[in-house]
Amino acid sequence: MKILFQGSLGAYSHLAALKVYPDAEIIPCKTFDECFSIANEDDKVRIIIPESNRITGNIGVEYLIFKYRLNIYGEHFHSIQHHLLGLPGAKLKDIKNVFSHAQALSQSSLFIKKNNLIENVRADTAGSAKYISDNKNKSEAAIASDLSAKIYNLDIIESNIENEKVNITRFLIMGKKILQPELNNQKYITSFLFKLKSKPAALYSALSGFAIQGVNLTKLQSYPEKNSFTSYFFLCDLDGHIEDIKVKKSLEELGLHCDDMHILGVYEADKFREK
Questions:
Q1: Which of 99, 111, 125, 169 is an active site residue?
Q2: In b/e form, how buried is each residue of 120-156, taking b as 16+ CB within 10 angstroms?
Q3: What CATH number is associated with residue 117?
Q4: Which tens digits make up the pLDDT trace of 221-262?
């Protein structure tokens, strides 16, 4: 099996892929769009994509979920531990500039401020580590994973520098094929997107079925349709399986109020949700 992720080797998505698929062939892509595009053309490929972070919120891949409408096979909650990586022998007192992805910099802002470091935003965390390794400047460091330190032969100058020690990112596993587990005693998530008909109180009316049936929505996010600020898609997760009668009735009611509606996937809820 081939698993694609966005970023360089050593990225947090790489770590997540190793956790979920330790025996798979794991391949880096330069962009999220490249991941989605390849998976859309090859049904033997799966992608693992960060969807949201507990501290900094949505990662910003919603437009690609809408564009490609790949099937969601599962979710994985991954603990993010940021480390300050520098050249071998470098000490904290040597570091003036720190490089990383914007989210990693934001999630480590207290450490950065405390040590008067100058932030430099890069495309990804592992790419920043590679830059430090290649550039050979002792006054520069990257915020990245311990795997990046091993891959790019860097020292971990300071460990676990994130603001919040419970720093969790939710990843989605996606692909072209439609796969759906049978309904049993497991806990499930159903993910879907929809666009409402243009009428007053449309969202209120559309969601009433979930309240009536007692179905819990765990995610409801709006995203403007391309070239429009008046027409919106909504990305949703709910607790339950699409074959459950209450879920089925809720979605049928929703469909009456929509111009477009698409089921993205039904999958087992990650055990992290039970914590």
A1: 169
A2: eebbbbbbbbbbbbeeeebebbbbbbbbbbebbebeb
A3: 3.40.190.10
A4: 998 887 777 778 999 999 999 999 999 999 999 999 999 999
